[in-house]
Inverse folding.
């Protein structure tokens, strides 16, 4: 029979583990900032990481954006029928893709692809002592492994998000032409109706923070992996879950701060 | 000029691993540290190269107190210490040549041609000629350990730390690794610290042997002295007789 205070103990342990993880990640972030000056260690790997994190993620980001754009156009048309002029489909597709779904859906997808990949790779290096080996060879592992990945995330996420948002809008446009009773001038009229250049800047700011969060969380869980294959699996799962949660929290935070 | 650990204490959570460990390793000697699995040998070794810092006590390498050095000074110190990992810890996405050349590339003193030459020389020393373009996954356990040794000696260190270099190897490969350790000491003049629980290896390669037990050095002496020890813990371990150790503990 379990002790009556067992749930309290479990909650307490969970809280301690969470605070400890936040502390470790904060410490790693400070180390990463300090390691920025070690250009010789991270700069040669930046291009490779930008390719792996950004360019290689383009297909999945575009796939998601295309279908999101299609569905947005169809749902907008279904909602507006009879009540709102149909050219508002363009406004809804544009505004929603740029402000919200482009950055967030791409961020969530990349949290699964990029965050998991980083956590698994660095976690495997940790449990097979490759990170210790780097240290014994006088390499700062934070400068060598963490800095290029986080910088690549910060640089490439906005680019992938921009591309995804554009493709989402184009998909919505194509859907409006082919499946709805809407012409190109009508769609573009709707698209321009509420468009603000600030929307794009807002999406880019969000995307930079999503990129830093996803790659940083992946690095942190990978770096602090313990145990063998099971530990790597756990770190990978936690990286995706926590990375996705942080994206949603950041999304709300930026909306509250920048869209008031 | 030597390695010296003085009254080192180290705990992980509530588990006290080292409880006042002291050991001196004079320059030019090979010292083996024996002890049961999980007794803290690797923890001790990681203190020497600054991968771990003691809770209490000091670790001296030459004139540097490793436990008091800042991170940059620790990196500088590591250039004169080579570390051979238990499972080689080769970078699995790199070729053997890239692995062996990692330390050299970090030193910023060598041209790519010089690095290639040094890598080939190190691989020749460990009997892995022509393995430059192979990946670690294409090597056997013994070959990986030799590649790890080549990586460790590439920077011509003063000290070589071996973490269980013969664990998991067949007797023939074990002898080959032992002979390599002896050759490294003879040809390169390196000071060696070898962690092992293989008594045959320890007696073959060591100038001195220290036994780690309950977080401290239980006994230290020449291979002959330790073989002749009547301490039941030492005797029980050396002769593989757990009943002696259980009776004494």
């Amino acid at each position: 029979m379990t002790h009556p205070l067992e749930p309290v103990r479990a909650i307490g342990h969970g809280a301690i583990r969470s605070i400890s993880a936040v502390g470790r990640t904060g410490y790693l972030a400070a180390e990463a900032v300090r390691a920025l000056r070690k250009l010789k260690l991270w700069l040669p790997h930046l291009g490779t990481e930008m390719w792996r994190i950004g360019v290689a993620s383009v297909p999945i980001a575009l796939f998601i954006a295309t279908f999101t754009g299609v569905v947005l156009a169809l749902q907008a048309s279904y909602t507006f029928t009879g009540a709102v002029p149909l050219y508002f489909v363009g406004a809804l597709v544009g505004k929603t893709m740029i402000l919200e779904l482009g950055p967030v859906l791409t961020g969530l997808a990349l949290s699964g692809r990029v965050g998991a990949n980083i956590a698994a790779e660095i976690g495997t290096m940790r449990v097979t002592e490759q990170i210790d080996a780097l240290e014994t060879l006088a390499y700062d592992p934070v400068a060598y492994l963490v800095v290029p990945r986080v910088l690549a995330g910060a640089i490439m996420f906005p680019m992938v998000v921009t591309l995804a948002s554009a493709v989402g809008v184009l998909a919505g446009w194509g859907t409006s032409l082919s499946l709805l009773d809407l012409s190109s001038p009508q769609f573009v009229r709707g698209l321009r109706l509420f468009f603000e250049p600030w929307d794009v800047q807002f999406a880019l700011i969000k995307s930079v923070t999503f990129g830093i969060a996803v790659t940083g969380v992946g690095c942190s869980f990978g770096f602090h992996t313990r145990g063998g294959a099971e530990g790597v699996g756990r770190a990978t799962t936690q990286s995706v879950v926590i990375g996705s949660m942080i994206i949603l929290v950041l999304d709300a935070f930026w909306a509250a701060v920048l869209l008031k | 000029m030597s390695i010296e650990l003085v009254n080192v204490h180290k705990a992980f959570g509530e588990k006290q691993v080292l409880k006042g460990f002291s050991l001196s390793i004079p320059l030019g000697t090979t010292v083996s540290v024996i002890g049961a699995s999980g007794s803290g040998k690797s923890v001790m070794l990681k203190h020497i190269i600054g991968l771990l810092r003691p809770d209490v006590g000091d670790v001296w390498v030459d004139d540097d107190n490793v436990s008091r050095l800042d991170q940059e000074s620790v990196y500088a110190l590591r250039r004169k210490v080579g570390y051979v990992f238990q499972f080689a810890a080769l970078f699995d996405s790199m070729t053997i040549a890239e692995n062996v050349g990692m330390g050299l590339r970090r030193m910023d003193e060598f041209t790519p041609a010089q690095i290639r030459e040094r890598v080939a020389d190190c691989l020749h020393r460990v009997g892995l000629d022509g393995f430059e373009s192979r990946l670690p996954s294409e090597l056997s356990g013994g070959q990986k350990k030799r590649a790890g040794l080549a990586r460790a000696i590439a920077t011509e260190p003063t000290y070589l730390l071996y973490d269980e270099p013969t664990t998991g190897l067949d007797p023939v490969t074990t002898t080959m690794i032992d002979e390599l350790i002896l050759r490294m000491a003879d040809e390169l003049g390196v000071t060696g610290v070898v962690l092992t629980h293989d008594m045959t290896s320890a007696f073959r390669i060591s100038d001195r042997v220290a036994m780690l037990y309950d977080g401290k050095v239980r006994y230290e002496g020449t291979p002959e002295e330790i073989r002749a020890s009547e301490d039941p813990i030492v005797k029980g371990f050396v002769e593989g007789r757990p009943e002696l150790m259980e009776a004494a503990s």
Summary: The mean pLDDT of chain A is 93.
